[in-house]
């Protein structure tokens, strides 16, 4: 997602531009396929320092289910609020920022061609939004720990031995269910 912000940088503080986004993502996510389109709404506002970006974005991704190892489609939704700073004055073409002693590692820059690239901040937000243990469904039964059969497709023929230490608890649960 790239936006030419030259006109906005020439405008007064508080000037805004709004965009609707519906495009293939220009980034990859670790451990996820991105078959869908990146969708959402982006607002750019001129500030004293540069351009404030506020975006609400969503993306359908295909992950691997943590229980059955099958495909797990998940919709990721993120919000971005970042201020981008220009490196070149839009009117004179002179370098304005950053001087080596002024550069702060967390600053996000607008290119010398006045292109604001939102791909990397969006990728970072989507990476953080990926669930730690994605599931294909809440009712996913997972895999048999003995034979590896996908229990969503049906039961396996394994004999599951129960741990005798849990029998007292199972007995209490059975009594509670009959009362």
Tell me what the structure shows.
The chain is of the alpha+beta class. The protein folds into two domains: 2-140, no CATH class; 141-179, no CATH class. 16% of the residues lie in helices and 31% in strands. The protein contains three helices and seven strands. A hairpin with a 6-residue loop joins β4 and β5. The mean pLDDT is 87.
Write the layout of secondary structure elements.
Blueprint: E1 2-4, H1 6-10, E2 16-23, E3 38-46, E4 51-64, E5 71-86, E6 108-110, E7 115-117, H2 119-129, H3 167-178
Briefly summarize what is shown.
The chain is of the alpha+beta class and 179 residues long. It has helices at 6-10, 119-129, 167-178; strands at 2-4, 16-23, 38-46, 51-64, 71-86, 108-110, 115-117.
Descriptors:
179 residues; 3 helices; 2 domains
Major sheet characteristics: 5 strands, mixed
Contiguous runs where pLDDT drops below 50 for at least 5 residues = none
Strand order of the largest sheet: 2-3-4-5-6
Radius of gyration, taken over Cα atoms and rounded to an integer in Å: 26 Å
Q: What are the secondary-structure elements, in order, as H or E?
A: EHEEEEEEHH
Number of domains: 2
Number of strands: 7
Mean pLDDT comes to: 87
Question: How would you classify the helix and strand content by structural class?
Answer: alpha+beta
What is the overall shape?
Answer: elongated
Beta-strand content estimate:
25-35%
Residue share in helix: 10-25%
Cα-to-Cα separation, first versus last residue: 61 Å
Count of helical regions? 3
């Amino acid at each position: 997602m790239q936006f030419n912000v030259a006109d906005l940088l020439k405008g007064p503080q508080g000037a805004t531009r709004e965009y609707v986004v519906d495009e293939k993502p220009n980034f990859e996510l670790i451990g996820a396929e991105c078959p869908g389109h990146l969708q959402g709404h982006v607002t750019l506002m001129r500030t004293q320092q540069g351009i404030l970006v506020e975006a609400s974005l969503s993306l359908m991704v295909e992950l691997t289910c943590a229980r059955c190892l099958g495909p797990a489609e998940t919709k990721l939704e993120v919000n971005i609020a970042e201020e981008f700073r220009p490196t070149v004055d839009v009117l004179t073409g002179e370098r304005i920022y950053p001087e080596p002693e002024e550069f702060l590692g967390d600053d996000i820059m607008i290119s010398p061609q006045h292109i604001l690239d939102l791909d990397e901040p969006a990728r970072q937000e989507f990476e953080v939004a990926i669930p730690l243990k994605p599931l294909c469904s809440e009712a996913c039964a997972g895999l048999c720990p003995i034979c590896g059969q996908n229990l969503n497709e049906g039961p396996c023929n394994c004999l599951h031995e129960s741990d005798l230490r849990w029998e007292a608890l199972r007995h209490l649960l059975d009594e509670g269910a009959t009362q």
